[in-house]
């Protein structure tokens, strides 16, 4: 499989602080990754580098066959869908949901005088349908609940049929039902053959949709571990990432984690549930 993106010895420094510290990471087409780590680990910074909205201080970044520093980033960004609170903040509260999705076709956050054709409108309506927000098409973005907003942002991110989709904490702020609904939709996306490469940032293993294939664990700007979910998402690796002894359980492809009880062995087999 060709690489969707490739980071080699990437560091990002700001105000003398290493936000990313020597990160090397390759993601191939067809893979679905989750990036986990505590607050301040550098997850959002990492997504900004992959989304071509931040340049590294050191190292090499290749995204969708293009090398950062040698490519017109505005063109590269049209091939990448990105959802985050920053993207949400750029959408005017008075923008209709339909225009919030449609305007992605011109990579603008507020519809103004751009021209949209029938194809654009059909695509926006299809995306709103697939993400369950068609009934909200006429509502203003500023009046949406957090769960509705998250779905509209994903519909918008998929509007341009991107090759790479970056989801920064899509489950944050959602109630149990809204989270489970979103996970079910992401599970469908993860299993679809024509889906883009997916990279999702989260704080919680409970938010990993079934169908995701790989995990990257971060702490203090560094990679703690990376690789296939089955072998890399272990209690030991989570413990190192979050600085605690962790008990990890897995059932039906979903994960659950909590602090390990004192004296208990933290490593529980994800397959059998038995402690090792
Ligand atoms: N411009 C900057 N100057 C200095 N420090 C910064 C700058 N931008 C971010 N940071 C710091 O870099 C660290 C990594 O930030 P980042 O937002 O990438 O972490 P994160 O893992 O996404 O955190 P969270 O889970 O809380 O969203 C944080 O400690 C943050 O305060």
From TrEMBL:
InterPro entries: AAA+_ATPase, ABC_transporter-like_ATP-bd, P-loop_NTPase. GO terms for molecular function: ATP binding; ATP hydrolysis activity. Pfam families: ABC_tran. Keywords: ATP-binding, Nucleotide-binding. It comes from the Bacteria. SUPFAM superfamilies: P-loop containing nucleoside triphosphate hydrolases (SSF52540). PROSITE patterns: ABC_TRANSPORTER_2 (PS50893). This is Iron ABC transporter ATP-binding protein.
């Amino acid at each position: 499989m060709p690489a969707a993106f490739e980071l080699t010895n990437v560091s990002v420094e700001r105000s003398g602080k290493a936000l990313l510290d020597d990160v090397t990471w390759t993601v191939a087409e067809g893979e679905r990754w989750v990036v986990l780590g505590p607050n301040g680990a550098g997850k959002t910074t990492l997504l900004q580098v992959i989304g071509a909205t931040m340049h590294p201080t050191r190292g090499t970044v290749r995204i969708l066959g293009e090398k950062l520093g040698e490519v017109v980033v505005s063109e590269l960004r049209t091939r990448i869908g990105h959802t985050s609170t920053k993207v949400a903040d750029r959408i005017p509260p008075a923008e209709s949901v339909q225009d919030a999705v449609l305007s992605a076709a011109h990579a603008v956050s507020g519809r103004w005088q751009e021209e949209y054709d029938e194809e654009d409108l059909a695509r926006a309506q299809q995306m709103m349908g697939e993400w369950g927000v068609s009934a909200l098409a006429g509502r203003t973005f500023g009046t949406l609940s957090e769960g509705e907003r998250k779905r509209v942002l994903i519909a918008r991110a998929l509007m341009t049929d991107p090759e790479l989709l970056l989801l920064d904490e899509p489950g944050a702020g959602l109630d149990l039902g809204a989270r489970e609904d979103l996970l079910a939709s992401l599970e469908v996306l993860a299993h679809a053959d024509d889906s883009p490469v997916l990279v999702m940032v989260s704080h919680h293993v409970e938010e990993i949709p079934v169908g995701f294939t790989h995990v990257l664990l971060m702490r203090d700007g560094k990679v703690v571990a990376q690789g296939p979910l089955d072998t890399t998402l272990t209690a030991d690796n989570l413990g190192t990432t979050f600085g605690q002894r962790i008990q990890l359980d897995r059932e039906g492809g979903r994960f659950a984690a909590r602090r390990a009880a004192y004296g208990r062995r933290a490593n529980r087999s994800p397959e059998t549930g038995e402690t090792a």
